[in-house]
Amino acid sequence: MSSYSFPADFIWGAATAAYQIEGAAATGGRKPSVWDTFSAQPGRVLNNDTGAVACDHYNRYASDIKLMAELGIRHYRFSLSWPRILPDGRGAANQPGLDFYKRLVDCLHQHGITPHATLFHWDSPQALENLYGSWRSREIAKDFSDYAGLVVRELGDRITHWMTINEIFCFTHIGYGIGQVPIHAPGTIVSSAKEVWQTSHHALLAHGMACQAIRAASLVPCSIALVDNFVPTVPIAETPEHIAAAQTAFHLNGTNGGIAEPALTGQYSPALLKQLGADAPDIQDGDLKIIHQPLDAFGFNNYSGTLVRAIDQAPGYEFLSFPKSYPKLHMPWLFFAPDSTYWGIRHISETLNRPDLPIFITENGCAAEDELTTNGEVLDTDRILFLQQYLRSAHRAICEGYPLKGYFVWSLLDNFEWAWGYDRRFGITYIDYATQQRVPKSSAHWYAECIRQNRVV
Ligand code: FCB
């Protein structure tokens, strides 16, 4: 009997994002995104790396897709670059940009790979940042939904799996800093926490309006998802009191109660609003209805979690920080927390009361200090350990009846890891940036075997 088997229709995939892999930043009519501007400023990104060339995927997409097919990967999550398609963020479409994505998607289909397209993975058009401060303005919701409608009219014959926005927290809450230099683009310092919450509220509105635009534009039935990196609360032990503590604490962990919760339930967490007080965003009449669109799936980007325990005093729970020697991978925040997969899925179904909503793990993976051996291998057994344990936790969720339908490893390729540049490697494929040579790591071969056997090997 083989263990850790997944359901026959389970989706195994790999994920990437446009700015992190494409390069060709000034090719085919593309204009800058906020990440081009941010990374061009000295000192913003480690080693002053930029995404100008990245993995040169714009020119090498065909061989990258061939590699994916050879590994047996049949589902690919990638993102479309808004400024490649609409260089000014709005107005006239850029045909060479659209043509690139048509070629890419046709090539995926030729290799039997299903495309899952994210409309926005952080690369806001710089033109809109200049025009009205992008996410600081409500205007962006209309521009984003127009862009979404355009993309679906142009590519909706080839793509039926849409994801609106990736990780609202990251490009809003850590892209706009209060009184300190933010670590993500656009790197704009705002003056209050309320202004920051307003940026994520605008992103939620953009998501909601984009859902409406996609449904209106798609000529065929399609699936729409939001992708979020809510942070699961994980009970210190699985006893009724610690589980209850993790469930109560869920709403107040990071931005959980202000991003995933309104999107999936139509309400900001009341406990969060109380805690925010005057820092809460302004919410206009009708906003929550727009934000709370029917979704076909929810994308969970899963890296780590927060441990919680029950305590006797109010509020009845306590967030625990990770002790000094707690195991982590090659990022300061990447604590090894495989139970976060199971708990993340369970919290969506149970704590947010959405047992009906299919869930995909749209990212899971880790940075490791990969080294190429003299005979050309990358023996990333640390990454295998990481993926194996998180996938076992995913398997547990399925066995207990939670609606997990698929999994996308982050990432297909080593790539431009935002403020960490090329210093941090998240790929199952190693990239030698000097030659652009691709070397599938041991984890890629291991993952291929999981897919082949439809189980965690
Ligand atoms: C996620 C991002 C993705 C990548 C991974 C490591 O937050 O969505 O682009 O940077 O982290």
Automatic annotation (TrEMBL):
Its EC number is 3.2.1.21. InterPro entries: GH, GH_1_N_CS, Glyco_hydro_1, Glyco_hydro_1_beta-glucosidase. Keywords: Carbohydrate metabolism, Cellulose degradation, Glycosidase, Hydrolase, Polysaccharide degradation. It comes from the Bacteria. The keyword Hydrolase applies. It catalyses: Hydrolysis of terminal, non-reducing beta-D-glucosyl residues with release of beta-D-glucose. One of its GO terms (molecular function) is beta-glucosidase activity. GO terms for biological process: cellulose catabolic process. Pfam families: Glyco_hydro_1. This is Beta-glucosidase. It comes from Pegethrix bostrychoides GSE-TBD4-15B. The lineage of its organism: Bacteria, Bacillati, Cyanobacteriota, Cyanophyceae, Oculatellales.
